[in-house]
Design goal:
Blueprint (H helix, E strand, L loop, with lengths): L1 E4 H6 L3 H19 L6 E7 L5 E9 L9 H11 L1 E4 L5 E2 L1 H4 L7 E3 L19 E7 L9 E5 L8 E7 H4 L11 E5 L8 E2 L6 E2 L2 E2 H27 L1
Parallel strand pairs: 2-9
Antiparallel strand pairs: 1-10, 2-3, 3-7, 4-5, 4-8, 6-7, 8-11, 9-10, 12-13
Length: 232
């Protein structure tokens, strides 16, 4: 795994050299692996306590020399990447994490904060894009990490982003906190889930509230019945 920490480099005053080193390394690995378009791009969105609140994935299927159709890109993203969830047994595919009503998107370019060289003139990219918001719903408790299987031919460029920066209008490649390149057998660090708004340990807060009201109603009925019997 190649790891680049922009935070550590920029603290030393070498922001410009960071991108020279990063893009040079990406170019070297890309020349050995194939083409920039055949990488899976993965963004972990983190809060101030480095808890994961969002996950985005992109895969080009138009300029990618190894993918011919949208369906192939869909299968790679859903089934070939492996996700390790702490406190849960086994390894999961992305399809295990997606809600039933999940909608895939198609975009023509990567986001401005993606730490990859810009597209060359004349290239017509088309990316399959998945976006998950763990602040609203997540499979927690525990943490999550990404693993590229040892037998896989896929490679991924992963970067970490502060969630607050994603809401700004000044995103650029320099916005990423850390950048990782994952090849077969590599994995990311584990990031704990943020406590979601609608789910706590797999149970919805609205569901808990409903059960609580039902319990209070049952207790009220029992107490009322006892008072009626006592007055008879």
């Amino acid at each position: 795994m190649l790891l680049f920490s922009q935070k550590r480099v920029t603290e030393g005053g070498f922001r410009a050299s960071f991108f020279v080193v990063l893009w040079s390394a990406l170019a070297c690995v890309s020349s050995a692996h194939g083409h920039f378009s055949d990488y899976i791009f993965v963004r972990f969105s983190l809060d101030g306590e480095r808890r994961i609140v969002g996950l985005d994935l992109w895969l080009d299927y138009q300029e990618n020399p190894f993918i011919d159709t949208r369906e192939e890109a869909h299968e790679i993203l859903e089934e070939e990447l492996i996700w390790q969830l702490e406190e849960q047994e086994g390894l999961l595919a992305l399809s295990d994490l997606l809600p039933d009503d999940f909608a895939w998107q198609e975009v023509l370019r990567l986001p401005d904060d993606c730490p990859a060289p810009p597209a060359e003139e004349g290239e017509a990219h088309r990316f399959l894009h998945a976006s998950l918001d763990f602040a609203d719903q997540n499979p927690g408790p525990g943490s999550i990490s990404l693993l590229i299987p040892t037998e896989s031919s896929q490679a991924a460029i992963v970067w970490l982003m502060d969630r607050e920066l994603l809401a700004s209008d000044s995103l650029s490649v320099s916005s990423a906190e850390e950048v990782m390149m994952l090849l077969a057998g590599d994995f990311t660090p584990s990031f704990p889930f943020v406590e979601s708004k609608t789910w706590v340990r797999g149970v919805s807060i609205s569901g808990l509230f409903g059960f609580g009201l039902l319990g209070l109603f049952v207790l009220w009925r029992i107490a009322r019945r006892r008072r009626l019997h006592a007055n008879q």
